[in-house]
Amino acid sequence: MQTHRRDDSYHDTRELVESALGRYAQLSSRKIRVGIDDHSVTLEGVVGSYYHKQLAQESARSVARSRTIHNELLVIPAHRS
């Protein structure tokens, strides 16, 4: 039964983080993967600027409870014509 509670906690935290990221158009259209374990939230994927990387991190931190944030997002600026 404790395993089920842990899975629910992971799922709830993932949903909170994904919802927080979705509040920003710059992040909601991006492919950001959210990983959860007992002590941390990991963000992986690609964003278009260092500002968006920081915005994703702070958005996740605001709802991640007491978990550490590992920001592994890559910054690849979009080319403008």
Largest sheet: 3 strands, mixed
| Approximate helicity band | 40-55%
- Report low-confidence residues grouped into runs of 5 or more: none
Task: Estimate the mean pLDDT confidence.
Answer: 88
Strand content: 25-35%
Q: Number of helical segments? A: 3
N→C terminal distance: 56 Å
Using the alpha-carbon principal axes, give the shape. elongated
Q: How many strands appear in the DSSP assignment?
A: 3
Question: What is the topology, as strand order, of the major beta sheet?
Answer: 1-2-3
CATH topology: Histidine-containing Protein, Chain: A
The CATH architecture can be named as 2-Layer Sandwich
Structural class: alpha+beta
Radius of gyration: 13 Å
Record the SSE blueprint.
Elements: H1 2-22, H2 25-28, E1 32-36, E2 40-47, H3 50-61, E3 68-75
Parallel strand pairs: 2-3
Antiparallel strand pairs: 1-2
Helix pairs in contact: 1-3
Please tell me about this protein's structure.
The chain has 81 residues and is of the alpha+beta class. It has a single domain, classed as 2-Layer Sandwich (Histidine-containing Protein, Chain: A). The chain has helices spanning 2-22, 25-28, 50-61, and strands at 32-36, 40-47, 68-75. Strands 1-2-3 form a three-stranded mixed sheet. Helix 1 (2-22) crosses helix 3. The protein starts with a helix and ends in a 6-residue tail after the last strand. The mean pLDDT is 88.
